[in-house]
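Propose amino acids for all 446 sites.
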């Protein structure tokens, strides 16, 4: 009798024989990969799809890419595929061009003696697929697929852990995390994205090892953090980061605030994920981090200080820093929009990334169960005023100089005031603007 896992992988009567569903084998990326591996088979070498792609197919998801492993060494691969080069020579990874498509192939290897909690001191090639699998991180990522018939080879009970929806390390969790500290964060990331639980011993080792992520580069920590808090179910991931103590080493400002009320932070991220389907990764990351800062107690200035510190710590790009600071600076503006003058409202709607600001305001309202009337009103005003947001200024600096105003820092103040009056609809043309300046900024006072 056959059974199914997630409606995708067929498990035969033989409990040891597991096969990927046939429709995956018919996709163009899979067939291209199969053609390359068959060339390796004809040359007398092993070749398998490994890792996340196999896991995703077992789950019924379409892989974004296929990772390949083989017992062929980089030198042997170069003989089979003349157009190839080592892209990770220290780890036996080769980039191969075959039929005008690029593939990365990793040579089977054993690793020993991790000195820095990230990279092995020694890497030895081997001819055993099983040995290569046993050095990997989690059972769900330790599956192999034979492209010739779609059979899944499982040395680590990964299929059963997928069925049970569990993240578990291959081997002893404490040892695996000591080898590579990044695996601690990857465990949270995989559990968050896949909506799996974390196996008890693996979770215990995460808590025990949380402090050790301090040796990782901030760029790697940032990348894992962003993958967690911009995932489809980020609230659970943030809660795990908090409860394991990892967040105290990444965002201590947020961790401390979550001690009092963690649900608010998690709920905010979950609402944001539902509103961000068509948002670029770059903006998703900035919005998610800004939203966490939104929840901090205190005045805008103190939160801006926290934001600057966090942006520096995470090595964010200048563009993301500017976005996040802007989100924090204007975080209270939207709630008071109905009390703004016409000029203030137009300036707010004309903000760069106004849609992002408005989305954060919506999420803030949803998180705190505030009435959405002001949100809907701002949306309506944005439509009504869209052709009035960026009028050509009635005056410029040359006009003021022609009026015998001496160049000074006050010129920008005068121009800003004229533009505000223009946005208010109180100045209609250049003549009115000139008269306004003469009445309100007599040259004697400059």
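Proposal:
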């Amino acid at each position: 009798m056959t059974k199914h896992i997630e409606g995708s992988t067929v498990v035969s009567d033989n409990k040891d024989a597991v096969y990927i569903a046939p429709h995956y084998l018919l996709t163009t990326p899979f067939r291209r990969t199969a053609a390359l591996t068959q060339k390796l088979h004809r040359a007398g070498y092993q070749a398998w799809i490994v890792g996340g792609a196999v896991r995703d197919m077992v789950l019924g998801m379409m892989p974004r890419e296929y990772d390949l492993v083989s017992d062929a060494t980089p030198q042997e691969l170069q003989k089979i595929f003349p157009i190839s080069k080592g892209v990770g020579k220290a780890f036996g990874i080769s980039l191969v061009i075959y039929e005008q498509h690029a593939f990365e192939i990793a040579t089977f290897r054993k690793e020993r003696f991790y000195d820095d909690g990230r990279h092995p001191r020694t890497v030895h090639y081997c001819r055993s697929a099983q040995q290569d699998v046993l050095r990997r991180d989690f059972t769900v990522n330790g599956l192999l697929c034979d492209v010739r018939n779609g059979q899944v080879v499982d040395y680590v009970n990964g299929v059963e852990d997928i069925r049970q929806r569990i993240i578990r390390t291959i081997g002893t969790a404490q040892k695996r995390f000591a080898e590579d500290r990044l695996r601690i964060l990857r465990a949270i990331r995989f559990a968050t994205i896949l909506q799996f639980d974390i196996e008890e011993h693996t979770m215990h080792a995460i808590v025990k090892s949380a402090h050790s992520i301090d040796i990782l580069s901030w760029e790697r920590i940032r990348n894992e953090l962003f993958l967690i808090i911009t995932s489809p179910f980020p609230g659970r991931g943030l809660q795990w980061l908090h409860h394991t103590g990892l967040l105290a080493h990444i965002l201590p400002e947020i961790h401390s605030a979550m001690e009092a009320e963690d649900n608010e932070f998690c709920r905010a991220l979950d609402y944001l994920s539902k509103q961000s389907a068509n948002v670029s990764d770059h903006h998703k990351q900035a919005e998610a981090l800004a939203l966490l800062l939104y929840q901090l107690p205190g005045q805008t200035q103190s939160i801006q200080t926290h934001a600057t510190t966090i942006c520096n710590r995470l090595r964010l790009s200048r563009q993301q820093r500017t976005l996040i600071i802007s989100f924090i600076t204007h975080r209270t503006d939207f709630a008071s929009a109905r009390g703004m003058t016409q000029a203030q409202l137009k300036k707010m709607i004309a903000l760069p990334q106004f849609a992002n600001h408005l989305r954060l305001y919506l999420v803030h309202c949803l998180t705190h169960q505030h009435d959405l009337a002001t949100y809907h009103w701002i949306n309506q005003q944005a439509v009504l005023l869209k052709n009035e947001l960026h009028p050509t200024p009635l005056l410029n600096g040359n006009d003021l100089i022609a009026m015998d105003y001496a160049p000074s820092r006050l010129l920008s103040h005068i121009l800003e005031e004229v533009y505000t009056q223009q946005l208010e609809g109180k100045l209609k043309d250049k003549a009115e603007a000139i008269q306004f300046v003469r009445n309100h900024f007599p040259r004697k006072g400059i």
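The radius of gyration is 29 Å. The longest strand covers residues 101-107.
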